[in-house]
Amino acid sequence: MQTIKYTFIGPIRQALTMARLPQKGALKDEQLHVIQEAGILIKNEEIYEIGPYWDLYPEAQSIGAEMVNLKGDFVALPGFIDCHTHICFGGSRSKDYAMRNAGVSYLEIAKAGGGIWDTVTQTRKASLEKLAQLTVKRANRHLKDGITTIEVKSGYGLSVEDELKMLRAIKLANENTTADLIPTCLAAHIPPKDFQGTLRDYLKKIAEEVFSILKEEGLANRIDAFIEDTAFAPEDINSYFQKAKEIGFDITVHADQFHTGGSQVAVDFDAISADHLEASGDKEIELLANSDTISVALPGASMGLGVAYTPARKLLDAGASLAIASDWNPGSAPMGDLLMQASVLGTFEKLSNAEVLAGITCRAAAALNLADRGTLEIGKLADLIFFPTDDYREITYQQGKLKPSIVYKNGRLV
Ligand code: NIG
Ligand code: FE
């Protein structure tokens, strides 16, 4: 039997609960639910009570809660959620980065056989244990920055065995970090050069030989595909996504990064999210805004490639739901600093604090179909982060340099 442990944290200058916000559309800071001089009472791994500190104090004392008295001013938020990363990989692509800065484009490097394929070669060479170790290291760096839930994609294996190796490595990494890793199968990342057969033969093989193992071993509940000129065309992916949906996987799409077409696929398959969208125009924005598919901006990929940002303002004004993720990967987004990237996206796209912070908390939770986190509310996981400041606006204002100094995951101090 599990023993019950209560912890009472406070007083917290401002607790931003991120609760009570609409899931879709533009947000104003006035809509943020802020509790001044707050207390959070944790029962084991969940939030048991949240409210004004002195209102909860007598209860906390009477049940014998461990009292965590905060010294100084803090702003509390739900643990950040990075809903799109590729942190399981071998090698580095610093060579590509230098080439891009010398004028060769990402797509040109890909067409010449480098880019993602280079990382596939490095990742195939690495052992499962080595990949798990590298993933844990990157996840722990994120956790230190307050990111308590991290989506992690495969997609650098591109064969039955190597995709399974990656997803087993992500599972092993999840057992060895305090952060929660949410795996996604991205076997449809780019066409594998060494596969004997057509693209459709490859996807058929993955669907037949990988999908059932993902379910049996609990390796992933989500299927992703990169729809792009150098990757997969909408016609290639239809029956693959159809099968994935029949088995009950959530669909997510790398869409409209350089050319449009992916967002239509995402909406047609009722995907949980369409990510990238740097190339989306008015037609795609309208399409996404009128769907339940969450738009995910990846400012780290714009910074890594030196290209325009996702039209986040237009998406929100049209009524879309917008999450923001780091896309941390060795090619297009090597930085991996979610808060910095989300804050800077806010500067360029004129986003409110509420829109930026919702994009990396409650709206990111929805993009991963996780109902148990993303807000500070009774019954949610006690994933809590505390910034040493007295005003929540300092967080985006300092553009990522102000980091949380206290992080709790599942009710435990990290
Ligand atoms: O989301 N666009 C495709 N995939 C990744 C990049 C992966 C890589 O360059 O290694 C992305 O940007
Ligand atoms: Fe990506």
TrEMBL record:
Tree of life domain: Bacteria
SUPFAM superfamilies with a match to the protein in the record: Composite domain of metallo-dependent hydrolases (SSF51338), Metallo-dependent hydrolases (SSF51556)
Gene name of this polypeptide: hutI
Documented EC number(s): 3.5.2.7
Keyword Hydrolase attached: yes
InterPro entries per UniProt: Amidohydro-rel (IPR006680), HutI (IPR005920), Metal-dep_hydrolase_composite (IPR011059), Metal_Hydrolase (IPR032466)
Domain spans labelled Amidohydrolase-related: 76-414
Functional pathway: Amino-acid degradation
Protein name as catalogued: Imidazolonepropionase
Alphabetical UniProt keywords: Histidine metabolism, Hydrolase, Iron, Metal-binding, Zinc
Keyword check for Hydrolase: yes
Entry GO MF terms: imidazolonepropionase activity
Pfam families: Amidohydro_1
